[in-house]
Every structure is written in structure tokens, then in C-alpha cells.
Amino acid sequence: MVIGLQAFGGICVSLVMKYADNILKGFATTISIILSSLCSHFIFDDFSSSLNFLIGASLVVFSTLMYSF
């Protein structure tokens, strides 16, 4: 399931790169991180987000938002 999610994320990134520019690739990567972590949380019972993971994901999202402004 995780491999399928990552493959789907890669296809989404390639479509963004084909029809948009490099800046949107960062947004697609951020959305991929968020969606894969949310899906992992709901699909797999033993997945638990650690504090380091939450801090890292928050920093990635924050840096993408700061880069866009």
C-alpha cells in the first residue's frame, strides 16, 4: 500500500512538472508527505507519528508556504 501511495505521489509530481513549473513541485511534494502520513495513520494500525515526524512535516509545510510568499 505504501509503495502504491508513493508511486501515485510520483505520478502526481510528474504531471505537475509537465504542466507547471518547479515551484509547484514543492507544493506537490508537501501534499504528498501530508497525504501519505494521513493514509498511513488510518490504514495501518501500528503506525504512530512521533514528535520528530510531526515537527519535520510541519517544517516542510511551513517552508513551502514561506517560499510561496
TrEMBL record:
Gene Ontology MF term list: pyrimidine nucleotide-sugar transmembrane transporter activity
Cellular compartments annotated: Membrane
Residue intervals passing through the bilayer: 23-44, 50-68
Membrane topology: Multi-pass membrane protein
Any Gene Ontology CC annotation: Golgi membrane
Keywords: Membrane, Sugar transport, Transmembrane, Transmembrane helix, Transport
Keyword match Transferase: no
Keyword Isomerase (UniProt): no
Protein name (database record): Uncharacterized protein
Species this chain originates from: Euroglyphus maynei
Lineage: Eukaryota, Metazoa, Ecdysozoa, Arthropoda, Chelicerata
